Amino acid sequence: MSFRSVIASSTKQLSSSERKVMAVLLSGERVSEAPAAEVAQRAGTHESTVVRLAQKLGYRGYPDLRADLQRDEGQERADHEAHMRADSGHDLYSFASDEAAALERLAKYVPQEVMEAAAKTIDTSKTIYVFSDADDERPLRDLAARRMRRLGFTVVTLENSAKDLAENMVGFDSDSTLIAYALREASVRLAPLMSECQRRGGRVVLISDVPGFHFRPNPDHLLAAPRGDDSGYRTPLVPIALTYSLQLAVFHLNRTRYGAVRSQIDDLTRHFGGAEESPRRS
């Protein structure tokens, strides 16, 4: 299992000394070969804190945690050393075929009733919060924010810092829904964020590319489908398609309501000197 996935799915509260240990483990300095005593020294704490953190995360002890960390670091090295699409072919036909196959599998992994259930949750919301922390996911977060604004929702885009999350989450309530992305691996902020959303009576729609992974806490709606077959080169086409499909599913729940919003957006666009998104024939 991925060590980062274990962290992302944990809702345990960490002490200040345990957070220091976690920072060492996630420092990217290849600490997977280091014994617990060395990790503790780097963190400026005691070896028992390292062992306690491992057990709090669900491991039997530090050796099991280190095994997962070694697997993560080995995969990172393999991804870094691999040539892009070395095995699956770099030509346009092979690339397009792989992406088309991934898109064709979408309905298998995300049945329409699952999509519509998530859409109904959004339809009954007043405010949509959107979260992702990875650099390559931020365009998806911004896309989701814009798609929801096009439907007339008030949208709050969340950054990854603890301070930003705290400031923006003050207004999250039972009329709010979080749309979050977890691609390849989940942010360490995701589990406490989802937990807080649900504690406040709101809902969570999670878009992931890891079908079958059990997130903790469980999101209210999980839209999970794998991306292209090339493990070293995965485009965002599948999560983009899920994002657009989610917007369409919401729109068709109440075409009159959301159509009126689109008309208002067109009117305001012209008022501010712009052109309609889709010019109308006379």
Please tell me about this protein's structure:
The chain is an alpha/beta fold. The protein has 2 domains: 3-85, Winged helix-like DNA-binding domain superfamily/Winged helix DNA-binding domain (Arc Repressor Mutant, subunit A), CATH 1.10.10.10; 95-272, Rossmann fold (3-Layer(aba) Sandwich). Helices cover 51% and strands 10% of the residues. It has helices spanning 3-8, 16-25, 36-43, 47-56, 62-81, 92-104, 106-109, 112-123, 138-149, 162-169, 190-199, 237-251, 255-271; strands at 127-131, 154-158, 176-182, 203-208, 221-224. Strands 2-1-3-4-5 form a 5-stranded parallel β-sheet, sandwiched between helices. Helix 2 crosses helix 4, helix 3 packs across helix 4 and helix 8 (112-123) crosses helix 12. It is globular, with a radius of gyration of 21 Å. The mean pLDDT is 87.
